[in-house]
Amino acid sequence: MDFQFSEQQEMLRATVREFVERECPKSLVRKWDEEHSFPPQVFEKLKSLGVMGIITPAEYGGTGGSILDYTIVCEELSRSGFWGLASYFNAVIMYGADMIYHCGNEEQKRYFLPRLCRGELLFAYGITEPDSGSDAAAARTSAVEQGDHYVLNGTKMFITLADKADYTITLARTNKDVSKHKGLSLFIVDTKSDGYSARPLKKMGGFTDTTCEVVFDNVKVPKANVLGGPEAVNRGWQLLISTLETEHLEVAANSLGYAQAAFDDSLQYAKERNAFDQPIGKFQAISHMLAEMAVDLHLARLCVYHLAWLRDADKPCYRESCMAKLVATECWTNMAHRAMQIFGGYSLMYEYDAQRYLRDSYILLIGGGTRQIQKNMIAKSLGL
Ligand SMILES: Cc1cc2nc3c(=O)[nH]c(=O)nc-3n(C[C@H](O)[C@H](O)[C@H](O)COP(=O)(O)OP(=O)(O)OC[C@H]3O[C@@H](n4cnc5c(N)ncnc54)[C@H](O)[C@@H]3O)c2cc1C
Question: Is 134 a pocket residue for ligand 1 (Cβ < 6 Å)?
């Protein structure tokens, strides 16, 4: 067994880490969070690192990197604790490039992928609805065939960056007369279409991106924009499931980076903050907490990189993807809860980051499938 990263992978990690440290210092991350703003100039500079085409093959304009490369980038982008950076990145890579590459037909790949690799397009992912989240296949948004179009009506809920995206991949019902998983299709909806509107919702964390309610009011979508082409009509659920492992990996790798940020801050603070004439890290209660945090991080890292390895080796990894999502997202939340204790009263203050880590961590704990749903899927894979 080889746990060694290659020289190129170490270089990739160092490049992204250096970029994040230079462009996203903690003082600015706090400012962007407080202002609920995202700095477009930082994203423009990120594009110039060439990472937008990281998992897209060269024939479609990408650099044809491995899933492991992608995982390294996801982890490092989160290391500053800057929520929006990884979120915008994934709007290009996960909801754009990965969805189009794995689910699109040749025409769609040729049209969208080179633009995505240049970072010219943002995608949103419209699955959840007001009445169906975990039970996503119960979606009610309808798509009715009309000449050379489908007409979409319905509402999506909690859709990341749906107000900023150029396209929203949208799950809609194309056949009501079959069982719920069999009558769904995915559409590439141009967000400039008449009848499409996205309203950002107020939330408790993740202030540097947006989470939206999206209304489809007679939105006309050309048949050419059925994801996967005409033969993919009513196969939307199968296509969605085929991308779940990468989505779990992305969420888990981001969580790992954020958890590392919370750990690093906590360790440093425990060494610097004095009480009763000694650093608080000398108290066993605090040092054991940090020891447990280090163990949790190590376990999450093993799960995440093992999953990346399985994906690259093209081995079945559905169960491991649920495990990695569960372990890494819980790791981040637990890390943030402990950081709150270690920072004491300062943990609640906006000039420190513990409160932000805690607020943001709940998003990935829920988004992409709650812990209960991950456990259901793991249990099912065990034959239960
Ligand atoms: C900030 C944010 C961003 C998001 N971004 C997106 C996005 O870009 N695109 C998108 O499509 N969605 C997005 N989501 C939605 C997210 O994926 C859903 O919120 C999540 O899947 C849970 O669905 P729900 O909120 O409807 O909760 P529900 O499904 O109503 O669940 C409520 C509770 O019941 C539990 N529960 C439900 N069913 C079961 C079961 N079978 N067994 C055990 N427990 C169960 C859940 O675990 C949970 O604890 C986002 C959510 C948030 C908060």
Answer: yes
Residues 220 and 128 in one domain: yes
Q: What is the mean pLDDT of the chain?
A: 97
Q: Report CA(210)–ligand 1 centroid distance (Å).
A: 17
- State residue 170 phi and psi, 5-degree precision: -125, 130
Query: In a mutational test of the pocket of ligand 1, which residue from 127, 157, 158 has the highest number of ligand atoms less than 8 Å from its CB?
Result: 158
Which are the contacts of 72, defined by CB distance < 8 A and separation ≥ 6?
A: 5, 9, 12, 13, 16
Pairing status of strand 123-126 against strand 167-173:
parallel
Structural domain ending residue among the three candidates 121, 139, 168: 121
- Our answer on whether the CB atom of 127 is closer than 6 Å to any ligand 1 atom is yes
Are 71 and 179 in the same domain? no
Query: Do 191 and 74 fall within a single domain?
Result: no
| CA-based end-to-end distance of the chain | 31
Contacts of residues 10-14 at CB distance under 8 Å and 24 or more positions apart, as own/partner, are: 12/69, 12/72, 12/73, 13/72, 13/76
Quick one: 14 and 149 in the same domain? no
What percentage of the chain exceeds 90 in pLDDT?
A: 99
* 279 Cβ closer than 6 Å to some ligand 1 atom: no
CA quadruple 238, 209, 253, 291: dihedral sign: negative
Q: Is 65 helix (H, G, I), strand (E, B) or coil?
A: coil
For 40, the domain range is 7-121
* Domain end point (choices 212, 234, 256): 234
Please count the structural domains in the chain: 3
Q: Which residue has the tokens 């500079």?
A: 45
Q: What is the reported pTM?
A: 0.97
Q: What would the pLDDT profile of 231-280 be if each residue is shown by its tens digit?
A: 999 999 999 999 999 999 999 999 999 999 999 999 999 999 999 999 99
Residue nearest to atom 7 of ligand 1 (CA): 159
Distance 133 CA to ligand 1 centre (A): 4
Each residue's pLDDT tens digit, 37-71: 999 999 999 999 999 999 999 999 999 999 999 99
User: Of all atoms in ligand 1, which is nearest to the CA of residue 134?
Assistant: 29
From ligand 1's centre to the CA of 329, what distance in Å?
14
